[in-house]
Design goal:
mainly alpha; Amino acid/polyamine transporter I
Length: about 500
């Protein structure tokens, strides 16, 4: 049967117990991991794009995206507490709706984690190149600072940060968490300073009109679809379940706590940015807003600055630093830019961390080469799959532009979130008596809201980003039927040690 291969929760937990990872993380470390994964590219880079789409209404966009993530997080929390093993949405889907859908979710998560990590690495490279020029007067040659599509040869800084993070993840989870905690402290301090300096200067006039572009694809909801990338990463907390002490308690705390803290920060930062200098879109002669990232918008922004006017927020590539410089805090604005430069590697770290754990479990299930599931005898980390992921991320970061990678990453993430919401409802019906250390409140309201929210945000992505998910999924199906299905442990009726698992199969 095509949809009959389901791996029961008992078998998943047994597999993790036999070939599991070292449990070393507590609730504070998990929350910091979540914050480290979330706060980064979105708030430091995408604020300007959100403002061009939604104007001051980007605050509503943050709320919409955060609300979709919140209901998804409640679904994640219930499943993560029941199944405290690595793998996140892939594992939950395998246990509830079967192997084929689990494979598709795992395949889609590559868009979230690997593509997202590469995009952030390229974004970090831009900060690094700018820092070299502003602080040291050194211009890194174009052929070493961007990929071929932008006139260069290789993005060397992006390669360096990807290799560095890969090495850190191989050395150990606890060491990575400690490094991440330092970077989280830098990010939170920078955003706190920004909020303290800008909110007292907020002017009500800058918030009108609130929704200059309406609510469509290039309005508030469209901005929410893009700014959704600012929240991507909180679910990486659930991929750390197998390395967490008392995961039934600590994983829900990490998921919901990190999301709540980040949402509050985002709203305050957006309010400060809008209130301090305004955030109205740049429009053409007919009053229509230019598309974010378009050559037309870039030309208009250049013309505004050439005319002697202050650069609008929507034109800045370092929005928060630009706001502080504009209101007179130039040195602090430069420090905010430095903080973003220092902090973005933590986002690369968490995205790569999530990807390695998903690959690790897929390999442990036989859907990927089993060598990828090897655990280092000294460091207790999945070193082979981490090195493999590092190579993939490094190659993409070296030669590909940031472009619309955030939107492409969002398409895979939204699919995974929707499947988690479906899984939690199915499991409530199929196995209502199973112990649930954390229960999603009003699950048959919350889970459908998560699904509807994911579908709406996906539908408001740019057309090319919408097309990426089915195209990538088609490639995944080819790989599954050509390689993975015949090697699946569940399909072959074997466990990790080679013992028979026939009682758990539904398609024999």
């Amino acid at each position: 049967m095509l949809f009959g291969r389901v791996k029961p929760l008992a078998a998943i937990l047994e597999t993790a117990e036999k070939k599991g990872l070292h449990r070393s993380l507590g609730p504070i470390q998990l929350t910091l991991l979540g914050i480290g994964a979330v706060i980064g590219t979105g708030i430091f880079v995408l604020t300007a794009e959100a403002a061009q789409k939604a104007g001051p209404g980007m605050m509503i966009s943050f709320i919409i995206a955060g609300a979709v993530c919140a209901v998804a997080a409640l679904c994640y929390a219930e499943l993560a507490a029941m199944v405290p093993v690595a793998g996140s949405a892939y594992t939950y889907t395998y246990a509830v709706v079967g192997e084929l859908f689990a494979w598709m979710v795992g395949w889609a998560l590559i868009l979230e984690y690997a593509v997202g990590a590469s995009a952030v690495a390229v974004g970090w490279s831009g900060y690094f190149v700018g820092l070299l020029k502003s602080q040291f007067g050194f211009d890194l040659p174009l052929y070493l600072s961007v990929g071929p599509s932008q006139g260069g040869l290789i993005n060397l800084p992006a390669v360096v940060v990807s290799v560095f993070v890969t090495g850190l993840l191989i050395i150990g989870t606890t060491e990575s968490a400690r490094f991440n905690a330092v970077l989280v402290a830098i990010k939170v301090t920078a955003l706190t300073v920004f909020i303290a300096l800008t909110l007292p200067l907020a002017k009500e006039a800058y918030f009108h009109p609130l929704t200059p572009n309406g609510w469509g694809t290039y309005g508030v909801v469209g901005a929410a679809s893009s700014i959704f990338f600012a929240y991507v990463g909180f679910d990486a907390v659930s991929t750390a379940a197998e390395e967490t002490r008392n995961p039934q308690r600590n994983v829900p705390i990490g998921l919901i706590g990190s999301l709540l803290i980040c949402t509050i920060f985002y709203l305050l930062v957006a309010g400060g940015a809008i209130g301090a200098i305004g955030a109205q879109p740049v429009v053409d002669a007919a009053g229509r807003a230019f598309e974010p990232g378009s050559p037309e918008l870039a030309a208009k922004c250049a013309a505004i600055v050439a005319g002697g006017a202050v650069q609008p927020l929507v034109c800045s590539k370092e929005a928060l630093a630009h706001v502080l410089r504009t209101i007179g805090y130039v040195p602090i604005g430069n420090l905010i830019g430095l903080a973003a430069f220092l902090a973005l590697p933590s986002v690369v770290l968490m995205m790569m961390y999530g990807q390695t754990r998903v690959f690790f479990v897929m390999a442990r299930d036989g859907l990927l080469p089993e060598k990828l599931a090897s655990v280092h005898p000294r460091w207790k980390t999945p070193h082979v799959v981490t090195a493999f992921t590092g190579v993939v991320v490094t190659l993409m970061a070296a030669f590909l532009p940031v472009g619309k990678l955030a939107d492409y990453s969002n398409s895979g993430t939204l699919f995974a979130f929707a499947m988690v919401a479906i899984s939690v409802m199915v499991l409530r019906r199929r196995d209502p008596d199973r112990k649930r250390p954390f229960r999603t409140p009003a699950v048959f309201v919350v889970a459908p809201l998560a699904i509807i929210g994911c579908v709406i945000l996906y539908a408001k992505l740019p057309p090319l980003a919408i097309a990426v998910l089915p195209g990538w999924g088609l490639i995944g199906l080819v790989v599954y039927f050509a390689y993975s299905r015949s090697r699946s442990h569940v399909g072959r009726g074997i466990g990790m040690g080679g013992e028979e698992m026939k009682p758990i199969l539904k398609d024999q």
